[in-house]
Design goal:
Elements lengths: L1 E5 L5 H15 L20 E7 L2 E9 L11 E8 L8 H12 L2 E8 L3 H15 L4 E5 L4 E8 L7
Parallel strand pairs: 4-5
Antiparallel strand pairs: 1-2, 2-3, 3-4, 5-7, 6-7
Length: 159
């Protein structure tokens, strides 16, 4: 069973270590540093969660209310989402994402780097199933990202 647990400020170092793993995977030629980390305990519209599968901490999700499309009402946004490689392709990420969408009903925006083919596939499938394919997708060439926009009414249950 997949669950989300709010990350406390005392667990910031654990999250930071996972963020380094995640950023090295996404941007292997960079020196990863996540400059927004402290904001997750200072700003009310930021929500850090560890993702657990059974009793194992298998990843994290960082949510915020930052958006990239000015004409879109301020959505919830998945800023960062990571499942450790050995726990992927087991439905854990999908379950965690759906829990996020249900926990925070309203407008949503998910951005994926255009070169993250696995991420694009994952989010298209997950958001497509969650919304019955009622989502919009657009490419932001300036930031080199794919942006998916949709609405959650909360409490939807999909397998």
């Amino acid at each position: 069973m997949t669950t989300l647990r709010k990350i406390t400020k005392n667990e910031k170092d654990i999250l930071n270590n996972l963020l380094v793993e995640y950023l090295l995977e996404l941007l292997p030629n960079d020196h990863p540093e996540y400059k927004y980390l402290d904001r997750y305990w200072l700003e009310k519209d930021r929500h850090p969660f560890f993702i657990y599968f059974e009793s194992n901490m298998v990843g994290f999700v960082l949510l915020n209310r930052v958006h990239s499309i000015p004409q879109h009402p301020i959505p919830y946004s998945i800023a960062e989402f990571y499942i450790k490689p050995k726990f992927r392709k087991k439905g854990i990420g999908k379950s965690a994402a759906i829990q996020c969408f249900n926990r925070f009903p309203g407008n949503w925006e998910v951005q994926i780097f255009s070169n993250n083919i696995a991420g694009i596939h994952f989010w298209r499938k997950t958001i497509g199933q969650f919304t019955a394919h009622q989502y919009k997708e657009q490419e932001d060439k300036q930031s080199d990202r794919i942006i998916q926009i949709f609405k959650s009414i909360g409490n939807l249950n999909i397998n």
